[in-house]
Amino acid sequence: MKTCYFLLPALLSLAIATTACQPQKDKTAGADTPAAGTQNDTDVPRYWHLTGAVDKFPIVLDLAYRPAEDQYGISTWHGNYYYKNKEDLIDLYGSVDSTGMLVLNEIAGFESTGSFSGKFDPGTGAYEGIWTSGNGKKKLPFSLKEDYSDGSIQFSLTQFRDSVKLFENQPESPGAFMSMVWMAPGPDTDAASVQFLEEAIRKGMLGDSLARVVSTPQKGFELMSREFMRSYRTDMDEVTTEELEPDSYFAYSYEQNASVEVLYNQNNLLTLGYWDYWYGGGAHGNYATLLATYDLQNRKEIKLEDVFRPEYETKLGPTLAQAVRSRFSLSASEPLSAVLFDDEVAPTENFGLTGKGVIFNYPPYEIGPYAIGEVRLFVPYQDIKTLLQPDFLSRFVSK
């Protein structure tokens, strides 16, 4: 987790000490496990891999449900989908409306490009309804179902939560809140792949160093939460109740949330996003998603050097610039600095793969202001074939 690196020395010391003395489970940290097909499906995090079509156009939709992180938050449905002829991910965010319809809104750049609205059955994974274009002029039927026959992995999700009040005797006291949504491969996954994915996800959620000394998600969360709450108490040590104003609740509260999200899950190629949000005072919190792609057939994480020839960095700029123009609807005459900090974009090591292209991901403030959010640029393999490694080209890129 990117935001916990400043806590790493303390966490490592704590991990070694607590592993040696085998403490009891921290009673303030709770875990919810998903139960498919029950009446309480939406009380716990869930993941579905859906396949089907919008009208006659085949799509794949990876959907997740995340309960509210604390008493002030809201539950969210989120994920992404892609048309199978392009595999350029389109983000989805939504909720269940007053009529019971699951409404998922798609967003690209500054624009809402469309929405799904239909009846979703969490137990069977069936989702049917109407897709509407962003301008409302086009309406097409869609029909999707949960399906893992395309070389994808089924996952279960577990949520851990912890919180502490600044003033224990005040019902509306500011406090520190922490949550983590962890992912584990489903029961149909072979043992070797389970071991590989558990280790990979632990590394993605905790970082290399902490992952080496922590063997379970529960223990990782307990260590991180304990240090997070201690840090909050230290920072707020001199705050008194007399300082609190009716509108100052958030000024004296800290929050950290983390989860692992599925971006692409098909044909033994898995791309995950390790999402992290943190708030420790100021005008607003911040967030970032770190991407990682796994070759499930060979059980290895795919690195940049596996994908690109050595000279790719100096040659990829114009293609990335075109991706920015496409995402933000910029004309050829408009400078990239109309939306970004600069007029050029360099490739980042924060990347992931789909079956038809590379995703470069830039968290807020990396190449643009907070207001434009996280910038995710998609580059089709067909546009950069000369920059790809021959082995990668022969295996992952269709002729």
Write the layout of secondary structure elements.
Blueprint: H1 8-21, E1 30-32, E2 46-54, E3 57-66, E4 76-83, E5 90-96, E6 102-108, E7 111-121, E8 126-133, E9 139-146, E10 155-165, E11 175-185, H2 191-206, H3 208-213, H4 217-235, E12 254-266, E13 269-279, E14 286-295, E15 300-301, H5 304-307, H6 312-315, H7 317-328, E16 351-353, E17 357-362, E18 375-380, H8 390-396
Parallel strand pairs: 11-12
Antiparallel strand pairs: 1-10, 2-3, 2-9, 3-4, 4-5, 5-6, 6-7, 7-8, 8-9, 10-11, 12-13, 13-14, 14-15, 16-17, 17-18
Helix pairs in contact: 1-4
Summarize the structure.
The chain starts with 7 loop residues before the first helix and ends with a helix. It is of the alpha+beta class and 399 residues long. It has helices at residues 8-21, 191-206, 208-213, 217-235, 304-307, 312-315, 317-328, 390-396; strands spanning 30-32, 46-54, 57-66, 76-83, 90-96, 102-108, 111-121, 126-133, 139-146, 155-165, 175-185, 254-266, 269-279, 286-295, 300-301, 351-353, 357-362, 375-380.
